[in-house]
Design a protein that fits this description.
Blueprint lengths: L1 H16 L2 H18 L1 H4 L21 E9 L9 H7 L5 E12 L2 E9 L2 E8 L3 E11 L10 H37 L1 H16 L2 H12 L3 H11 L1 H15 L3 H8 L4 H9 L4 H25 L10 H8 L9 H27 L2 H5 L1
Antiparallel strand pairs: 1-2, 1-5, 2-3, 3-4
Helix pairs in contact: 1-14, 2-5, 2-14, 5-6, 5-8, 5-9, 5-12, 7-8, 8-12, 9-12, 10-11, 12-13, 12-14, 13-14
């Protein structure tokens, strides 16, 4: 059976490669995963959560370049290893003071501190107070939000949030859906009736309303969102798996496992699941896209990921009022990111459906 599975997998991969839309989606998803993993090494602002606030430069337009005086922080900093930076970023060792000009006067650095458009203030710093290279220039390619944080950096770090929510939500939904759907389809009888009753009850509750209820019960936060989204998406999986198991359980090789005295659990795990994996993979890709949208919606409404974590939905919430002003990119950038990533998962899901001939199996 393993050789047959390998051959069918190879045939599915060949069909998938011919689907340009699916390959494009796979490339976008692969790039997003790389960006999420190495986010703090890619982002211009590699401080934790890209949360470097510089209030004086709030609401800057895309492409703005500013000069900053790097003033040392008094607190000592321990050396941060590679994995610490990979997971949490790097603590800023300096305060970034926006300036319009600077001069050296002996041991002092004289600067014109930028306060607002057309308003500056003269300040002096001793060389021991500033970095070895006191002045640096930073370009904000997508502008800054109202707190002066770099939008591009928060967009990059936010990729990690969206993919994490999608991944964990899919793992939770697939796990619950596979178990309940398999039990309902294989055992049937009262077990099937009870599980289907429970599924229909959950199915009748609007998704967002159910997510709100779970979120309010568990509280607001990072992990709570993962669990809430995952617990609302298993119903589709369970219904699909139940239908697949009902069809497969009557086939001869399943009858043979019962005749040989194999347990129901072994028959389901070893012989049924490998043969219904195609539809499950397709619905997993669809659920991944749905999870990203639900998380963004929850964060926009204020019950999802909490500040200062840079969720794309939260970024839209913080900056949507700029859409009708002269700087709409602050809200449009995370909106485009959500759209592109969701489209990529939908294209991949459609390609997997065609490659695995899922319509033939379920129809």
């Amino acid at each position: 059976m393993s050789s047959t599975t390998t051959t069918s997998s190879q045939a599915a991969w060949r069909r998938l490669r011919k689907n340009k839309g699916a390959i494009a989606g796979l490339i976008v998803i692969s790039l997003a995963v790389l960006v999420a993993v190495f986010a703090y090494f890619i982002a211009p602002d590699n401080s934790p959560y890209a949360n470097r606030m510089i209030l004086e430069i709030g609401g800057e337009k895309p492409g703005t370049t500013r000069q900053f005086l790097q003033v040392k922080k008094e607190t000592g900093f321990a050396a941060e290893g590679f994995f610490t930076q990979l997971l949490n970023g790097k603590q800023d060792k300096y305060y970034y003071v926006p300036i319009t000009s600077h001069t050296l006067n002996g041991d002092n650095v004289i600067v014109q501190k930028y306060i607002d458009e057309g308003l500056t203030e003269r300040q002096a710093y001793h060389q021991t107070q500033v970095a070895a290279t006191p002045v640096t220039s930073i370009t904000f390619w997508l502008g800054t939000d109202k707190y002066g944080r770099d939008i591009l950096s928060r967009l990059i770090i936010g990729t990690r949030i969206s993919l994490s929510v999608g991944l964990i939500a899919v793992v939770i939904s697939i796990s619950i859906g596979l178990v309940l759907g398999s039990l309902a389809g294989y055992i049937r009888g009262r077990t099937d009736s009870a599980i289907m009753w429970f599924i229909n009850v959950i199915w009748s509750i609007p998704t967002l309303l159910l997510v709100f209820a779970i979120t309010l019960a568990l509280g607001k936060g990072f992990w709570q969102v993962f669990i809430a989204v995952g617990l609302t998406m298993w119903v589709n999986v369970a219904r699909l798996v139940r239908g697949q198991v009902l069809a497969v359980r009557e086939m001869e090789y399943i009858e043979a496992t019962r005749a040989l005295g194999f347990s129901g659990a072994r028959t389901i795990v070893r012989h049924i699941w490998p043969n219904i994996i195609g539809p499950v993979v397709v619905i997993a890709a669809s659920n991944f896209a749905s999870a990203i949208v639900i998380e963004a919606g929850l964060s926009f409404l204020g019950v999802g990921v909490q500040p200062p974590q840079p969720s794309w939905g939260l970024m839209i919430k913080e900056n949507y009022n700029f859409i009708i002003t002269n700087n709409p990119m602050l809200a449009l950038a995370p909106g485009f990111a959500i759209m592109i990533l969701v489209l990529a998962f939908n294209l991949l899901g459609n390609g997997l459906r065609d490659a695995m001939n899922v319509r033939g199996k379920t129809g």
